[in-house]
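Bench log, entry 3. Co-assembly request; chain sequences pasted below exactly as received.
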Amino acid sequence: MDSIILLVDIQSFYASVEKAHDPTLQHLPVAVSGDPQRRSGIILAACPIAKSYGIQTTDTLWEAKKKCPELVVVRPRMQVYLDTSIQLTQILERFSDQVEPYSIDEQFIDIKGSEKLFGPPQTIAKKIQETIRNELRLHARIGMGPNKVLAKMACDNFAKKLENGIFWLTHHNMKQYLWPLPIERMFGVGRRMSRHLRQMGIRTIGELATFPVERLKKRWGIHGNVLWMTANGIDLSPVSRTTFYQQKSIGHHITLPRDYRTADEIRVVLLELSEEVCRRARTQHLMGQTIHVSCRGANFDIPTGFHRQSTLPYPTNQTMFAFQHAWDLFLRHWDEQPIRSLGIHLSKLVSDHKMQLHLFEQENKRMKIGYVMDEIKRRFGDTAILRAISLTPAGQALDRAKKIGGHYK
Amino acid sequence: MSILYRKNMLWEGSRMFLPEHREQLLKHYKQQQTFTPPILTEEAWQEINRLILEGLEGEFPLLIQYVEHKRPQQFCGFIEKIDPHERWIKVVNGQLIRIIHFDQIYGVESPSSE
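Structure output for the full assembly:
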């Protein structure tokens, strides 16, 4: 039997979890929204009833309220969603040991070899759907395919639109169902890419599939090749659990509560982010040798910002050292316009068991300070010890400690 | 044909994953690897008790199955001592000696009982 991959996606995940936890919300329009006082005050998820009023994810709260005045707005509880996502993984692992979470509400599962235990693929998909409904009270939509990319497109383009929420896309029926769809509906094609493709006369997925691959390769290199493969339903990626073991970079990005205009203010947040990133590196006993800084300008209409990287003289996980280089990098590229978001990443990670010693600097002591601070935070909470600068009005550390992914735990 | 094999790059590159989610997932994987010993009935415990006492008295070797560092282990040897207060047994096989705590044990087999 060939591989059969399923992509299991939960309908309106955050909103559905809230409804499952509170039965009184069952027949009401429910949306989960970030803090309206901050920029995260947008709709993160809306239940199907709320969507029937025209509410969409990323609507602002007041837009949503205008469309549906009786909308029940719930604060996000990120920890609950994470726990539910892990429960979902556990349910899927009963059907196969090959389960790969793709995001908080989407997971791949390879059911090859499970048919002897659970029946044919369609039956397995139905059983998975039923189990999720019975145990988590959530509605799962399942895309099926011979590989991950077809499973994903089966889910996004078909399963989500069907009443029973299951669709099987194969190499045989793909020409009939997938190829006539407009190019924007293909996995991996964003707004900009679709514009480029349309300029080349490619309007449907089928037209891309039959387009000479050499010309796509010439224009976009590997990416062009991959797009052509996706259009033809070819994807050799495995469903892999181990894909999470290896970490390639550690980073954080924050959308600021208001535009930050002065270097002094930005410096505070950059230092806090450096601390967080280095702390995560330290807990995993890693050091990074390349530092990346990115920011986005405040003006939405004229998108500005940059992403720059620089290589450090030696790998580090020390906050101040990483921060110094990040700050230099930022100042070199910043156009002195207000910014709305800021991020920092460490990559080229190596183990911290080996390190470069210095003749004149007391590296050891500085390294220990970091680990001691981490231990205090681990035992007494993230805000038990802070840099004094975090208490200035620009500081975000206190607020961030209460959040996961930018929203309250 | 232009078919590329890029491992899992297509999905790793496009994935939106919170660091907290990753940590929790790795914790879940780790828990899966830990061994949970079977829950034994009262009779099974009595049988284990009887075998160990008989092994000590009769000086015949026993195969002890126990949990160590969350993994199943087994050790074959003679019961040399039972400490009922500190609740451990000392099992000896030539030069090899194991001190096994009562709580670690989940099975005992006697080669001579077959």
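The longest strand of chain B covers residues 71-83. The helical segments of chain B are 9-14, 19-33, 42-58.
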